[in-house]
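cron nightly-structures :: item 1 of 1
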Amino acid sequence: MDEEDAAERIDLGQTPLRTPPTSELHSGPLKDELDQWFDFLCARKEESSPPANIMIGYAYGFAEAMLLADREEPAREKMDFLIRAAEEFKGRSDFPGRQ
């Protein structure tokens, strides 16, 4: 991973360390929905203000860890945070939830 990619990941609250993609370790409807919200928010990181844009990466990472540990309820709570953060962009045509 080059320095620019690492810096971008850190800006999103992710780790620049090489780790296996969790999609290979866990899959299912909740993981798919989590990824959908996270991808939507990542596409708008420049439009988000700190600390929200930093907390998005944290919430996603925590939710993934909980899914890997088969703890769906804490994962769902962090996904709810992502959904609330996305409400700011509800009028967008690619908004993942109900308009």
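cron nightly-structures :: done
The CA atoms of residues 9 and 15 lie 6 Å apart.
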